[in-house]
Structures are given as C-alpha cells and as structure tokens.
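User: Some background: our group keeps a shared notebook of sequences we're curious about, and every so often someone picks one and asks for a predicted structure to add to the entry. Today it's my turn. The entry only has the sequence so far, pasted here. Could you supply the structure so I can complete it?
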Amino acid sequence: MLESLYIKDYALIDELEVQFSSGFSIITGETGAGKSILVGALKLILGERAQTDSIRSGARKAIVEGVFDVSDMTEICALLDEGNFDNDTKLILRREISKGKSRAFINDSPASVQQLRAMGLELVDLHGQHEHQSLLRTEKHVQLVDKFGGLEGIRNTYLVSRAKVSELYRIRTELKRKEEELRQQRQVFEFQIQEIDSIDPRISEEDSLNSERRILENAERLFTATASLFDELYEAEDSVQDHLVRIRNELQDLARIDETFDPLQKEISAAQIAVAESAKVLQGYNSQVEFNPDRLEEIRERLIALDRLKMRYGGTLEAVLELRAEIGDKYTVAVDYEGTLARLDEEIGQALEELSDVAIRQSLKRQEVAGRIEASILLELEELGMPDAKFEVRFERDADPDGWISDEEDESPNRFKAQAFGVDNIGFFISTNTGEGVRPLARVASGGEVSRIMLALKSILAKSDRLPILIFDEIDAGISGRLAQRVGEKLNALGRYHQILAITHLPQVASLADTHYKVEKSVDNDRTSTSIRCLDTAERTDEIASLISGDQITEAARANAQVLIDLRPASTSD
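Assistant: Of course. Here's the predicted structure to add to the notebook entry:
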C-alpha cells in the first residue's frame, strides 16, 4: 500500500506530506484546488514523463517521493533484486525534476524511469488515464481469466511443457548447425578416443604409481637400512634390546628396596616391549623388500604415457576423462547422426502432443471461466447504471503452419502458435449502448464510463487481482443519486482487498469512505499553494454537507451528511 506521499515545489504545491490509510480513502476539494496535481505527482513516481514546466515558479527543482509497504510482494522483490536495489518491506520511489533533466531513485539508489515504470505496473492501477489501467492492456486479460478461475496450476503445467519443447528444439537446431562440423571431426574424435582408451587412465592413478615407483627406485637403501636398524635394535650383541633388559632388571631390584623405582621399571619395560615390536616390523619389512627392475620400468613408461595424455588433453587426468566423455558423445552422434536426429524428432513429437493436450485443456477451462465472468460483469454494469451494456470475453488463436499446438477438434488443419501463457489470445469486448456492437475494452469512451467499467471488472476480480493500489480519478462523472450510492458501495467493498484512493464530488461516494482527505488552495504573500489534510469526524461531516448544499452549509445538509455517513458498512479498517 501507499503509506505516504511527499511533494515539494511541484505545480501549486510548496511542500506537503500526507500519510495514507488502508481501505477506501476519498479525496475531495473545490474545482481547481489541485486534486489533479496530486494525481500528476503520483504518476511521476510511477514512471510518467516529466515536464519541466511543472516545477513551482521560483524553485530550482521539484521533488516527489512515495513510500510503499511491499511486504510479501514477490514481483516487487524480484524487480529490486534484478536492479540490485536494497530489498526491504518498504519501497521508496523518488523523482527529482530540474530544468532540462529528471532523476529517479529507488530505495535511495539511482534508477531509470523504465525501472520506476516497471515498479508502478506492479503496484498501482490508475483509472482515469489509460497508461496505468491494467485491465485495458490486452496482454493482461489471459492472466486475469486464469486468476479469476484459479487456473494457475494448469498454467504452470503448460509453462513447463512449453519450456521442454523449446529446449528440445534448441538442441535440434544446435545439432543441425553442427552436422557438417561433426562429420568433419569424426576421424579426429576416433583418433582421440583410441589414444585415450589405449592408455585407459584412471582417477588418482598417478599417486599410487608414484608411490610404488619411489619404493622400487630405493629398494637397495630400504633393504640395507631396515636390516641395519633391526640389528641395532634387537639382533646385535649389546643391542638396544639388551641394554633395556639390563636396565629393567636393575630397576626391578631397586624397586624391591624402594617403591619409588617401581614406576620407572614399568616404563622401561614398556620401552623394551616397544623396541621388540619395532624390530619385528623392521624385520618383516626387510623380508618383503622387492627388487623388480621390470616392474619399475613398466611404471615409468605408464607415467610417461599419462603425462603425454595430460599434455595433449587438458593438463590433468580429470580433464582427460572429461574430454573423453564429451568427444565420446559427439562421436556417437557423428557416427549415427541420422539416427540421433530421428530419435530427437520422435521425442519432440511426443513433447508437442503433451503441449497440445495441456494447451487445449487449458483453453476449455478458460472458456468456462469466461462465461462466469461475462455474467458477473453484466450484473455489475447494470447496478452501475449501464443496463444495456454487453460484455464478451473473446478467444482467438494465431494460426501458424510451424506452430507447436494442434487441436483435433478444430475443423481447420491449422497448427497454432504457442503463446507465453497458452494457445489463447483473450480480449475483453464491450458495448455500453443499445444498438452498438461490442468493441475492444481499450477503445471504449474515456471518462466516468470507463471508470465504471473498470470498477465493475475490479469488483468481480477483486480477490484475484494482485495490484494492491487502485486510484479512481473522477469516477463519478455524469452520475448521481442511487447510482452514485452504488459506486460508493462498490468502492467500499473493494477496500477490503485493495487500498482505494478516489477523487469525487459526490456526497454519496464520499460518505462511504474509511478515510477522508481534503485538498485546499490558499493564497499567502501573493503566492497560491495547494495542501491536503485528513479530516476528523466533524470536519468530514461539514465537507460532505458542503458537497450537498454548496458553500452555505445548512443544518439540514449536516443532518443529511450524517445520515449518509451512518449508512457506511463496517470495514476492515474500523
């Protein structure tokens, strides 16, 4: 939701900051007070084009900053991560306009206007100017139908299936591109495979070979040294073992006289045992020393062969084996190119059948949902003063001879293009007057009629529409009485699912808001300024009374205003 809006030196605004509430908020004010200025300022931080003549007279630059709560908004989080902006529950969008240039910021980091606009499209629907009306963008109609019907599951299945087909075609294109290259490299691959396989390298083989080589190269020294060490420790006269036995015996005699020597004799006994065990190990090693010049030469030749492979194919045995696997696959394809291509085409055919199946099932479900949408919209439009309206959800498919989707039930032999979200192009069509044919929603008349159509659509799509902020500028143009009451009731109901900001001149609409703001214009030191403030209970009653009776507020008007306010249903903000 929009938490606050700060504006400085923009048009008639000197400086103001307004805190907004959740639910349904209304903005009123005399004609020319500056309500449209607020909307214009908000559009700036949503990525609209900046005009330097909007800078307040005498000021150096204009500043507009909005703070939004974007908790749990995954689309905004993704955009922030993509742009390397600070990612938090708060989103700060700022625009600075000076003579000849404009600067944009997202979370206090420089940003492009395109990045602001991308954020705005995920945050706000601004009804009154087509640029921010998501329901007028035909590319959104498919997603709205899916959300209304709870069809996200089958849509995700379609996306996975479409991605699989796309990847298989990519592999096929790459295979065809490399056809001649593979054929030319077949002999090279064959030679490399034979060279590597003739040596048959194994991971970590070098470590064991080098260890064995060192032992064989030093067999003479190992034999002589272990024999000499065994002799000194155990076998020779006056060996270490003999010395330790003599010392141990002497300490045992001393320990019988004084127990102080008992620990020492035990330690010497342990040392004597350790020496005996060490000598046994040395004797065993000495008996197994191998003098094998043939094996040594075999190892040396093997290491030379491995070094040659490493030098030719990557520097390590791991790289050699990775290359072997890679060229092995390529060689298999080169040897059996036609077979590989045929098997890939068969896999593509199966994937296309799966894609067609899910796309057609998805289309049928959408058509069922579209019927419910049409009926619901007509009821809403009738309540909003358009009893003669017609509304249709139309489906079209793009025929494409190379398309990925086929429909067995379709009388034509055509194949169809696999769109981003299915086989369907979906458009909302409407007629508001008797005798007129339906036209695309984006081409209906502007003004209050468009806003009421949008309100009807939003009313039935409220729970499924993910945009959190809806702004209605002059939605009540050309209506009054009971119809105005219905508009206000629907805006109030929408406030349960979205933050609603609406500019109005009608007391029936204003009385149903959760929060009421007033825009005022004042003159100070021969300078005109626009300001906005949130009205308390008494001020709100007077403001609604002024909408009823004009500048002269009567007690009867106040009483009527209070009656209207008392009719407001309880909301989530109460």
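Suggested note for the entry: Residues 44 and 50 are 7 Å apart (CA to CA). The longest strand covers residues 515-524.
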